[in-house]
Design goal:
Blueprint lengths: L7 E3 L2 E3 L3 E3 L14 H12 L4 E8 L11 E2 L6 H13 L3 E7 L27 E2 L13 E2 L2 H20 L4 E6 L4 H6 L14 H4 L1 H13 L6 E6 L10 H12 L5 E5 L17 H11 L2 E5 L5 H9 L5 E4 L1 H5 L3 H9 L17
Parallel strand pairs: 3-4, 3-13, 4-5, 4-6, 6-9, 7-8, 9-10, 10-11, 11-12, 12-13
Antiparallel strand pairs: 1-2
The structure holds flavin mononucleotide.
Length: 356
């Protein structure tokens, strides 16, 4: 049996296969609103047969956007277009997921094709927040350290966003606690030097994430799965590391989190990352084995054989693909053919299905 096309039950949701569209910012929204681009982009990958599609980092607040063009879910007005997207994905037999995000001190930056670093206040930028007042890099904005009221607002923004995600028809929420954005900034001692109950010890650094998980679960029903994306390591001495990720994953499992999406890096500019095929898979394997929680593997997985091997070796329960899905929206359809698995094609495309 080919594992890649085995269904996976996550609480009350069943994915038809193990192939996931990894969240990818499209930097194409205005005031957080989704539009035809997002419908066609995500819809194409649903037509292409992905089991789960995790929508890009979607800001829980205006100030939590990475760039001015990020998607958002901080007001009810955002919902109708998001509902169109989820309805379309569901109609293709795929599952719509959403990544809820706050960019922290990496907010208010240019989208890749419009510039680099900080968008100044007089060019549409906004004041940013973080665990402390140190900037991510020289050309990034200097954040204001969150005070107790600011932390409360972050938690309540995630809670409200989870409620809206439900109303918009998403069936999976992924909390973005990776890549040097706000929740990761609190986890890592390199970005979190607070002296209150949110900084210092492991227990204090993970506190914000655990509180966000609890607030999310208040709105997100028991029948629906909750995923957390972690950067399993900062790849930097003295930073967040794989041992702490294992410890955190075990804690998250007891707090209603079903699966850890195992990425790395993003919190330290120019960290020495040994990029290569499947370079992050080891972390999915370790967290799955040592924390006893389901995992997703991501990072330079580009072929059906690689994806299948990760599952067959027991290193992960899901494989997430990002850039390969930009090259090939129909990856699952062609992967099935390559691995000799019979799957249904969209009826509209049936006449193009290769016959043995
Ligand atoms: C265009 C683009 C946008 C991305 N946006 C996000 C995002 O919104 N949230 C996130 O967690 N990761 C984001 N990523 C990272 C991917 O989800 C993925 O982890 C990374 O690209 C490695 O997978 P790959 O080698 O299959 O591309 C993005 C990557 C790309 C290429």
């Amino acid at each position: 049996m080919v594992k890649l096309f085995e269904p996976l039950a996550l609480r009350g949701v069943t994915l038809k296969n193990r192939i996931v569209v990894s969240p990818m910012c499209q930097y194409s929204a205005e005031d957080g609103f989704a539009n035809d681009w997002h419908l066609v982009h995500l819809g194409s990958r649903a037509v292409g047969g992905a089991g789960l599609i995790i929508q890009e980092a979607t800001a829980v607040s205006f100030e939590g956007r990475i760039s001015p063009e990020d998607l958002g879910i901080w007001k009810d007005e955002h919902l109708p277009m998001l509902r169109r997207i989820t309805d379309f994905i569901v109609a293709q037999g795929s599952v719509p997921g959403i990544q809820l995000a706050h960019a922290g001190r990496k907010a208010s930056t240019y989208r890749p094709w419009s510039g680099a670093g900080e968008v100044p206040l007089n060019a549409g930028g906004w004041p940013v927040v973080g665990p402390g007042d140190a900037a991510f890099a020289d050309d990034y904005p200097r954040p204001e350290a969150l005070d107790a009221a600011g932390i409360k607002k972050v938690i309540s923004d995630f809670r409200a966003a989870a409620g809206r995600a439900l109303a918009a028809g998403y069936q999976v929420v992924e909390l973005h606690a990776a890549h040097g954005y706000l929740l990761h900034e609190f986890l890592s001692p390199l970005s979190n030097q607070r002296t209150d109950e949110y900084g210092g010890s492991f227990e204090n650094r993970v506190r914000l994430l655990l509180e966000v998980v609890a607030a999310t679960r208040e709105m997100w029903p028991d029948e629906l799965p909750l995923i957390v994306r972690l950067s399993a390591t900062d790849w930097t001495e003295g930073g967040w590391n794989a041992d702490e990720s294992v410890q955190l994953a075990a804690l998250l499992k007891t707090r209603g989190v079903d699966l850890i999406d195992c990425s790395t890096g993003g919190n330290v500019p120019k960290a020495p990352i040994p990029v290569g095929p499947g370079y992050q898979v080891q972390f999915a394997g370790r967290i799955k084995a040592e924390a006893g929680i389901m995992t997703g593997a991501v990072g330079l997985i580009t072929t059906p054989a690689e994806a299948e091997a990760i599952l067959a070796n027991g290193q992960a329960d899901l494989v997430l693909l990002a850039r390969e899905f930009l090259r090939e929206p129909y990856f699952p359809l062609t992967a099935a053919q390559e691995l000799g698995v019979e799957i249904e094609w969209p009826a509209q495309y049936e006449r193009a299905k290769p016959r043995a």
